[in-house]
Specification:
With 264 residues, this protein is mainly alpha-helical. The protein has 12 helices and 5 strands. Helix 8 packs across helix 9, helix 10 packs parallel to helix 12 and helix 11 runs antiparallel to helix 12.
């Protein structure tokens, strides 16, 4: 019986696998957009209600300005690369939240939030574009859906998302929030280095196609790594070390510069 159960579980995992757009990495993909978007809309609205939104400030308008430029460029790029369905799936929103947290995130569907704590590190529009590209890359690669798929599999076996919500809505909500990176407790769904490096790689291309100088990305991460001394900000707490990510970015720079030169 155990062998049969294992075989069925393996079959489920194989059936629920897909590939990350642009990179081709295999991933577990057991949660669909149709299932996750109601949670996205509910949680994003809740965040905006509970937090102090300062999008109407100069910093907030900078986030919106860079976000819209990035979104248009990324959608065009996705269509050119053969992913029109992904480009059409976004309903972008950009907001700045008053908080000392050095953080930013992008929910599936393009629901973006920056925290004011990260703005001094971004310094300008190009710095915002580094973060924006990284967070948009998480959404394009469906990293939150992948992490949620793994979380549901670990906690509810082969249950679908609707079944998991029925069994334990509180845990399901926690898995969802952790999959996006909201809050200080990432718990069982910590960001993987694979996801972060993948988001760095795609984000570098995204900012380049939008006309932002990708050479500023390693410089931004140097500034980020210097924040807090020996205690890294939440944005870096479960991410790859700054030295390794900067090294990777520099390795990928020639390709990104080609896109940047074409966009100028």
């Amino acid at each position: 019986m155990k062998k049969i159960i294992t075989f069925i579980a393996l079959g489920f995992v194989l059936y629920a696998c897909s590939k990350v757009p642009l990179t081709g990495r295999a991933r577990l993909d057991a949660v669909s957009d149709a299932e996750i978007m109601p949670l996205v809309n509910e949680q994003y609205s809740q965040v905006l209600k509970e937090e102090k939104v300062v999008t109407n400030t100069s910093q907030g308008q900078a986030v919106v300005r860079v976000g819209k430029r990035m979104a248009a460029a990324v959608e065009k790029f996705l269509v050119q690369e053969g992913y029109p369905e992904i480009a059409a799936s976004f309903d972008w929103q950009f907001n700045l939240i008053q908080s000392d947290q050095v953080n930013a995130w992008c929910m599936p569907g393009g629901k973006v939030a920056f925290y004011t704590g990260i703005m001094p590190i971004t310094q300008d529009d190009t710095g915002i574009a580094v973060v924006m590209g990284h967070e948009i890359a998480h959404a394009v690669a469906s990293h939150s859906r992948e992490r949620m798929s793994n979380g549901l599999l670990a906690n509810f076996g082969m249950s679908m998302l609707s079944s998991a919500i029925g069994q334990n809505p509180t845990l399901t909500q926690a898995i969802f929030l952790q999959s996006i990176g909201i809050g200080s407790e990432l718990g069982m769904l910590s960001f993987s280095r694979r996801h972060e490096l993948e988001a760095d790689e795609l984000g570098l291309i995204f900012m380049a196609v939008a006309g932002y100088d990708p050479r500023q990305a390693p410089i931004f991460w140097e500034r980020m790594s210097a924040v807090g001394g020996g205690s890294p900000p939440e944005f870096l707490s479960t991410h790859p070390g700054p030295e390794s990510r900067i090294e990777k970015l520099n390795q990928q720079m020639p390709k990104a510069m080609q896109y940047y030169e074409a966009a100028k």
